[in-house]
Design brief:
Pyrv_kinase-like_dom_sf; lyase; eight-stranded parallel sheet; alpha/beta; three-stranded mixed sheet; Isocitrate lyase; lyase activity; metal-binding
Length: 532
């Protein structure tokens, strides 16, 4: 029996037990409202979506073509419209998630106003956005199911049993808009207790997957900026443990932890861990330091720090701000060590922040990781910080040059120029860009592809286009032709914005509560009727 019929039977029996006092309550209306509000708490969502991610991870292990994707969303409405579009265009939400970017929280959601991605925004804004995203996704369910209920009522009123059965099947097999969110906790916003407290709030809001990075929290930088400072492995493992304890405390046993390493672009450390024996984690971390040999007391000045490496007394190179520097060229080795250590200590997925989208570079690191941890998988940032057009055109240029193909008609440093847009090289670079995700999933172990802040850029671009025309010669036509007519032609539900905001749901409820006396908004004088 379907969940709808189960709820209907349950409410029918419940109403009957009240000996006429609940005769004004229609059990079918109660069943509909219950179905429209399937998820009562964020923890229910976290447990449900954790199961989805675990199944998707297993499916990817069996078949790398089954990678998953997401887009970063900075507002609940943006997340809602994204998942409505996914269902409408692709028929299912399977394999599609949401990403919550700390960068966009800082830039768009802080009470301080726009901030750089340096963990300066209020930590509570992160769980607040998770809750907001799921509120909008649940409202999308309620709206879509409400439309189905109306269709069911119409079919019944017309005596169309075939249509009624068809709609009933749609209700019984309804797929929710609620999908996993991969949520960015930055570097944990403080010590391990602070990380635990914030992780708990994020999970209570609905997060089944938390991404944490190995930077020092109080000097955290965006992964695509300079000045990144990493923490020793022991410190990072403590924060992974903190997140896992939060999941376990709240009963989300399948919760997913993404361990992000910024070591490829991070050349500094703030802290020298204490090694107990040669080869331990602290020893491995400090072995990458940039040091100079000490041959006599004259090589030491007041305040210097000395360490013993491979039996030799050495002085770590320390900057004026007290930070220690790693040796140049050690970034990839440190990334591999970070990833292996994180996976062996409780992380489920990896995130390697790179400086360019290059399948070969990522695959080289992943192969080394998989030599030790065979089922290692990545979440990868298809970042807007990359100039994708220039990167892939240069990759094609380099490949052609290596093959001995004539590239004299191209200037490698000027490949972004529009004159190359219709060139053979430009066309092949676009094809490589199109295929990047499937190629990287197959060759570089990438389970999940995301774009961190795409909707930041789409909002800016669409606003620029509208402002250009509306405040210019086009006037109102800029909106009509550029927005509303396109919404109508493309079948976007939000063209009827009153319904999207919940007016029809409210009308249904008023009718449930007040019957024929309900004062509804969706009558003949509602201008939304102009859109059919």
């Amino acid at each position: 029996m379907s969940a709808y019929r189960d709820a209907l039977n349950s409410f029918t029996q419940l109403c009957e037990t009240h000996a006429g006092k609940w005769d004004n309550i229609n059990p079918e209306h109660a069943a509909r409202m219950a179905l429209q509000n399937r998820f009562r708490t964020g923890l229910e969502i976290a447990r449900y979506t954790a199961g989805i991610m675990r199944r998707d991870m297993a499916a990817y292990d069996a078949d790398s073509s089954r990678y998953t994707q997401s887009l970063g969303c900075w507002h609940g409405f943006i997340g809602q419209q994204k998942m409505i579009a996914v269902k409408r265009h692709h028929g299912t939400t399977q394999g599609r998630y949401l990403y919550l970017s700390g960068w966009m929280v800082a830039a768009m959601r802080s009470e301080f106003g726009p901030l750089p991605d340096q963990s300066m925004h209020e930590k509570t804004s992160v769980p607040a956005l998770i809750e907001e995203l799921y509120t909008f996704l649940r409202q999308a369910d309620a709206r879509e199911l409400g439309q189905l209920f109306r269709e069911l009522d119409t079919a019944r009123a017309q005596g169309d049993e075939i249509k009624a059965r068809t709609v009933q099947d749609q209700i019984d097999g309804y797929e929710t808009h609620v999908v996993p969110i991969i949520a960015d906790i930055d570097a944990g916003f403080g010590n391990e207790e602070a990380t635990y407290l914030l992780a708990r709030r994020m999970i209570e809001a609905g997060a089944c997957c938390i991404q944490i990075e190995n930077q020092v929290s109080d000097v955290k930088q965006c992964g695509h900026q300079d000045g990144k400072v990493t923490v020793p492995h022991e410190d990072f493992i403590a924060k992974i443990n903190a997140v896992r304890y939060a999941f376990l405390e709240l009963g989300v046993d399948d919760g997913v932890i993404v361990a992000r390493t910024d070591s490829l672009g991070a050349g500094l450390t703030q802290k020298l861990p204490v090694s107990q024996e040669r080869g331990d984690m602290a020893w491995q971390y400090t072995s990458f330091l940039d040091t100079v040999a000490i041959s006599s007391n004259h090589d030491i000045v007041e305040g210097d720090t000395l360490i013993k490496l491979d039996g030799e007394l050495r002085k770590p190179v320390r900057l004026a701000n007290g930070l220690y520097r790693f040796r140049a060229g050690t970034g990839e080795d440190r990334v591999v060590l970070d990833c292996i250590t994180a996976l062996k200590n409780g992380a489920d997925l990896l995130w390697i922040e790179t400086e360019k989208p290059h399948v070969g570079q990522i695959a080289g690191m992943v192969k080394r990781i998989r030599d030790v941890v065979p089922d290692a998988k990545l979440v990868y940032n298809n970042s807007p910080s990359f100039n994708w057009t220039l990167n892939f055109r240069q990759q094609v240029f380099d490949a052609w040059q290596q093959e001995g193909k004539d590239v004299s008609g191209y200037d490698r440093e000027q490949l972004m120029d529009a004159r190359y847009d219709d060139s053979e090289l430009g066309a092949l670079a676009d094809a490589w860009t199109r295929d990047f995700q499937r190629d990287a999933a197959r060759e570089a172990g990438i389970f999940h592809h995301l774009i961190t802040l795409p909707t930041y850029h789409t909002a800016a671009l669409s606003t620029d286009e509208l402002a250009k025309g509306y405040f210019g010669e086009e006037g109102m036509l800029a909106y009509v032709a550029g927005v509303q007519r396109r919404e109508i032609r493309q079948g976007l539900a939000c063209v009827r914005h009153q319904a999207m905001a919940g007016s029809n749901i409210g009308d249904d409820h008023k009718e449930y509560f007040s019957s024929d006396r309900a004062l509804k908004a969706s009558g003949k004088d509602n201008t939304m009727n102009q859109f059919g």
